[in-house]
Design brief:
single chain; alpha+beta; Porin; 60s Ribosomal Protein L30, Chain: A; 8-stranded antiparallel barrel
């Protein structure tokens, strides 16, 4: 008995110690600094920030390499006075290997074989040069029109580079001399894409050779012009892969993705509460309306109340467009849910309307497109296409005055009619 009493006294002492410790460590509220309750902390959208894309391309794998062959005619200005100008024109052939870094710039290697010759009153020169050139290329179409969209068939390129000319020549049918010199080129090229892998090009080039022909003191720093037609093969451009030469800058560098950041508001401001109350009231009214429609559909018969009409303020469109406003998505999602899961065999009539701006024929066609946009959205949500019929009434039956921007926006709408 004594042991039981001692154990009880020990238990009471420990409990008392713990309780007094908890009281002594409880936080003390400072004067004029109220503790914020969890209910007063709300999260509301603050603003829409734009964050840069983390990658150059997010569409498809990109290929960069291409091979080209070309042929044409050249004109070498070897001497100021010649007996036969036609002798200065010769056929040339060449090829290129290029790495196109992005839709704007590329680098490559070019090899061409250029025969040359001329006849003066005192000498006859024959020979040729094999040119190896390192060049850079700029897509002038993408440079001047950076925001063009889609895959353009035509592109204009500006080229420039330096290299080495390995040349040989003979004087008056004599022995052949060989040498090398530095050179530079400037060119302009137009390419037409025949397919994803092939393109046809026309090119003109100016070439400058820093050479001096031995035994002909008057011939040095030679110039030449070339005109060629060529075919380019874009490596690995078939199938789902894209080649960078087929892509515009706006497609290669996607627009920054808008990201909605959030702001923590730690006080019950009137603005915050009003916004929350308005959203809650709007959602409650919408849910009540949808529930009422669902109940009316359940009671549909072929003899009594054969139709259930419904219209929603939030299903609106941009001016002159059949593009749905994002505010319509939530409502259309719930309408799709009603059509899919309702036990009754329900069909939906969708009527499109416009504002009064534009001709009657234009508005009638646009209203049909708007009704069809709603149908496409519902079909994408797995509503059978056979359950939906569309109608377009143009600018007839406005629900608001067309004299104001707000009124015209309300008239750009669709209305629904559920039927068995």
């Amino acid at each position: 008995m004594k042991k039981i009493i001692l154990n009880s006294l020990f238990f009471l002492a420990v409990a008392s110690s713990v309780f007094s410790r908890n009281e002594s460590t409880a936080p003390i509220q400072e004067e004029n600094k109220p503790i914020i309750s969890p209910e007063s902390i709300v999260t509301i959208p603050e603003k829409e920030d734009v964050l840069p894309s983390t990658s150059a391309n997010t569409i498809a794998p990109i290929s960069h390499w291409s091979l080209g062959i070309k042929g044409g005619v050249n004109y070498f200005r070897l001497a100021a006075s010649t007996l036969n100008r036609s002798y200065q024109y010769h056929l040339l052939v060449g090829g290129t290997l290029e790495y196109t870094i992005n839709p704007l710039v590329g680098v490559g290697l070019e090899y061409t074989h250029n025969p040359f010759g001329c006849t003066t009153p005192t000498i006859v020169i024959t020979g040729g040069t094999k040119d190896a050139i390192l060049y850079g290329s700029i897509n002038l179409s993408n440079l001047l029109i950076p925001n063009r969209t889609g895959k353009s068939k035509f592109n204009v390129y500006g080229d420039g580079g330096v290299g080495t000319a390995f040349y040989n020549f003979s004087l008056n049918q004599g022995s052949t001399q060989t040498d090398l010199s530095s050179m530079a080129i400037l060119g302009l090229k137009v390419e037409y894409s025949i397919s994803k892998s092939l393109s046809l090009g026309l090119e003109g080039q100016y070439r400058y050779y820093n050479w001096k022909l031995e035994q002909v003191n008057t011939i040095y720093n030679t110039e030449a012009a070339t005109a060629t037609i060529g075919l380019r093969y874009k490596i690995n451009a078939a199938g789902k892969k894209q080649h960078v030469r087929n892509i515009s800058i706006s497609d290669y560098y996607p627009k920054p993705v808008p990201v909605i950041t959030e702001k923590i508001v730690k006080e019950n401001t009137d603005e915050t509460l009003n916004r929350l109350n308005a959203l809650e009231a709007e959602n409650a009214a919408l849910n009540s309306k949808l529930n009422k429609i669902n109940e009316n559909i359940q009671s549909l018969t072929n003899k009594e109340n054969p139709f259930v009409d419904a219209s929603f303020q939030n299903i609106e469109f941009e001016f002159g467009s059949d593009k749905l406003d994002v505010s319509a998505y939530k409502i259309l999602d719930q309408i799709a849910d009603i059509l899919i899961h309702n036990s009754a065999s329900v069909k939906l009539n969708v009527a499109g309307y416009t504002d009064y701006i534009g001709s009657a024929e234009f508005n009638r066609i646009l209203s049909v497109k708007r009704a069809n946009a709603v149908k496409d959205y519902l079909v994408a949500k797995n509503v059978p296409t056979t359950k939906i019929s569309i109608f377009g009434y143009g600018k007839d039956n406005p629900i608001a005055p067309n004299i104001s921007v707000v009124g015209r926006q309300k008239n750009r709408r669709v209305e629904f009619q559920f039927a068995k």
